[in-house]
Amino acid sequence: MTNEIIFSHFFSQVKESITNGTFAKLTLAKTIGKPELQNIYVKLTEENNQLKYTLTKKVYDGEKKEITTIHPLDSLESELTPYLPYPFLSALLFTTEADITLKINKKKVASIIEQPPTFKNADSVLIAFLNK
Prior knowledge:
Blueprint: H1 3-20, E1 23-31, E2 37-47, E3 50-60, E4 64-72, H2 76-80, E5 88-95, E6 99-104, E7 110-115, H3 124-130
Antiparallel strand pairs: 1-2, 1-5, 2-3, 3-4, 5-6, 6-7
């Protein structure tokens, strides 16, 4: 499978976890070298009665900073894909059913690994939104 297909499959799992109410959080990590951008965290938020996501970028340019922006859910894949595989070699989806990791090896080949869940509870904003 090509990386594009694997990325698409991973992001479909992200969307499915949001739809099913099992999404806890999403993190991009494991950078190449020492880039300014250290991590990206995705959490859900509600704005104007719509479910959206916050994108928090941890940046180090002499001092640590966090830059947080809010985006519509339908832009999640297009917003995060440019960060893969540089500077990030992994994307970790935490759900209440499984931890799903998109890994990119040194040869830039992507794969998906599932492990038992780290989180017992889904994102509280998601649960509140779905229970409306």
